[in-house]
Amino acid sequence: MRNTLFGLVAGRLGASLLTLFLVSLVIFAITSLLPGDTAQQILGQFATPEQVAALREQLGLNQPAILRYWHWLSGFVTGDLGQSASNGMAVAQLINDRLPNSLILAGITTIVSVPIAITMGVVAAMGRGGLIDRLLNLVTLSMVAVPEFLVATLAVLIFAVKLNWLPALSYVSTVDSLGDAMKIYAMPVLTLCCVLIAQMARMTRAALIDQLDSPYVEMAQLKGVPPIRRVMRHALPNAVGPIANAVALSLSYLLGGVIIVETIFNYPGIASLMVDAVSNRDLSLVQACAMLFCGTYLVLVMLADICAILSNPRLRNR
Amino acid sequence: MQGESLIVRDLEIVATPDGGEERSIVSRIGFSLAPGEVLALIGESGSGKTTIALAMLGYARRGCRIAGGSVRLGETEVLSLSPVATRALRGHRVAYIAQSAAAAFNPSRSLMDQVIEAALLHQVMDRRSARDKAIGLFRDLALPDPEHIGERYPHQVSGGQLQRVMAAMALLTDPALVILDEPTTALDVTTQVEVLLAFKRVMRERGTTAIYVSHDLAVVAQMADQVLVLNGGCEQEQGRIEEILERPRHAYTRSLLAATRPVRLADSMPVATGQPLLEIAQLDVGYGKLNRDGEPSDKVLRGIDLTLSAGRSIGVIGESGSGKSTLARAIAGLIAPCHGSVQFDGTPLPPTLRGRTPDQFRRIQMAFQSADNALNPAHSVRRLLGRPLETYFHLDRAERRRRIDELMALVKLPTSLLERKPGELSGGQKQRVNLARCLAAKPDLILCDEVTSALDTVVGAAILELLAELRQELGVAYLFISHDISTVRALCDDVMVLYHGECVEFGSCETVLEAPRHDYTRKLIGSVPELRPGWLEHHPLAMAEGTPA
């Protein structure tokens, strides 16, 4: 088992490094293709051509793309993420300011959404075709169908504007007590949960029903095993693989994909940092963020696979 | 606990298909068993035998409902128990042995965990004594390493062993009634004998009442005291096993009996004196990575020689894993041999599909075991048959229509089925379409890989007859792969016996099957149950075990 797991992790890490490298190439190529010019963008419309040329020289934009990429890559490998082109701050510093916020939001959302989603999936699968299942199906479908900006806007309208229970904007700096924190995070977490829970619950239901239809669950029933034990002891352990993967895919969205939520609640997370960086042609910042998102995604998927292996004796005891 | 009596009266079971009307699938079934007796439920798939057997546990599958009747086990009326009482009955007083043990064991839990689960759940005994008893049963059922086999997971144990572990699971609580649902259908004949012997001995020792579900009359003859013949959910005939075998009253029973051991069809054929069509010399095939000498890590076939003349039919028999299908795949070009040569009609065949000419493709066709998987479920029969015609013959529209009608006539299907999809056909019809698709290419050689194995006995016998007729009419040659000796005997001129990837015996059907020279061939032939009660008791294995006959 140790060998399998070790081999998998080693293989995955290798593949992840390669993926990250390819991603950095792609991002670099795309940002180079973007219309406009970083120097022009920084100096504004009224800069003289001489000023622009001087800045281009200073930023190293006159060098060939391959050379620029090489500089960036060698810096990245040695831990130097470079300087932000738009405000001259260290990229590491910028990310360092934002990343904790994003991680807190992602963490709270995970803690809230995963248990709810899995419970909903399990309950729906157990009562398949029944009233609860159809009700949950309706709820999750509508949650998937409603775009998150609508959920966020409605939440603001109801809880902040009408009821005046919660602040409309999430200023992290004003947090003093746990109560404050809960108020601030309530609406962003609610919005994110809406999307995530629906996806995860539906995947859980599907994965579980797959197992509940299998002959060994029927066998358990014919041995007199009660329904809850059939699900928890027999079916669920075999559904861990697909469920873990569904959860990993959903959670990877929490870091980079939450731009709408960050914008609406004015939450200083890392997604908005990257979007700003793109509009400023801030190549090194874009690269760093992209690598971060990609890395997170790869780690999550690997964790899901490890879960699947640990839960499956066929893979475990190879 | 000793076996108890079982009395079933007027059992009615209905099914409600999605959005459809409720319809009866089992009606007016009744029988009665004295303690320790075994009843066989026999019939084709869809005859309701498993549905009836499951009703003994008060269970109906999704979409089905027990609508009426009574199942009385000892003093208990099973069908009127509360859900909690039903659960207490299952896995305790009534136990179930499923058809495919490989699917019926939870892949993620150890065998011992699952074997003793019911005993612990019903608080029959504590964990320690349950374990000890299970190990004792493993030993009784002749499982290897009874002390430790329980620590393994289902995938680490062979199919025949799993089936016995399942029997141990069923017998652990000393049930009054055991339901055996085709417990040996998925096994090789040689393994089947061992499992049947183990079941029979253990059940007799304990005096267990049992219901044995099967489609194989010969197996039933070994296991049952009484037989209930089913067709379409209705009783056709019921009686003692000897009576049914010797004096079947009902026409359906007679057709079942006839189909169980098909008559020899090959004799009526002209002895083909055709050119050698397929010549295989020193063929080695394997899977996995090649080592330094170019040998694959997992060699499946070794040193196979075979010559098949035009219009002849060679049977390939052996147990699962003996390399039968690999031989067909190598000839078809689906896997490249690592040594040896395959000549087709005098020219060497390229090892894989890539090097073959369209004409070579056309002349060698393969018919797979499961027509369900081989036919695209989204295409109509017309389209399925039209595709090879387009590929090989570039016929115009009218020509193609005519040829499709011709093909349907060849496999004896009405042209009214042409617009149907495979899902709307019966198992036998699907296999006929599958064959018609092979014939569309006007092949010289058809590789038949277990084409009758997934079919019911009667349907399979009809397909065999069709194959024999087609050979006579079209002069096509067969490489007929089967694990069932009686089908090979019925259809083939020559037979090759494969054992662990090597040909242990080759010769004409009569010689090999009537006077086998190799030990394995003898064992294989000796393992096919005969249609008479008492065969099992006199089997060499039983004699060796010292079971009283």
Tag the structure with descriptive keywords:
heterodimer, A: 318 residues, mainly alpha, MetI-like fold, 79% helix, B: alpha/beta, Rossmann fold, 6-stranded mixed β-sheet, 37% helix
Brief summary:
With 318 residues, chain A is mainly alpha-helical. Chain A has helices at 2-33, 38-43, 49-59, 65-77, 91-126, 131-145, 148-162, 178-212, 215-222, 227-256, 259-264, 270-279, 283-311, 313-316.
CATH topology of the largest domain in chain B: Rossmann fold
Compressed to H and E, one letter per element, the order of chain A equals HHHHHHHHHHHHHH
Residues in helix, % of chain B: 25-40%
Which segments of chain A are poorly predicted (pLDDT under 50) over 5 or more consecutive residues?
Answer: none
Number of DSSP E strands of chain B: 20
Structural class of chain A: mainly alpha
CATH topology name of the domain at 99-277 in chain A, in short, is MetI-like fold
Tell me the span between the first and last alpha carbons of chain B.
Answer: 25 Å
How many distinct helices of chain B?
21
Task: Summarize the main sheet of chain A.
Answer: none
What CATH architecture of the domain at 99-277 in chain A do you see? Orthogonal Bundle
Report how far apart the termini of chain A are: 7 Å
Q: What is the fourth-level CATH superfamily of the largest domain in chain B?
A: P-loop containing nucleotide triphosphate hydrolases
Q: Name the beta content range of chain A.
A: under 5%
Q: Portion of residues in helices of chain A?
A: over 70%
Biggest interface found: A-B, 22 and 31 residues
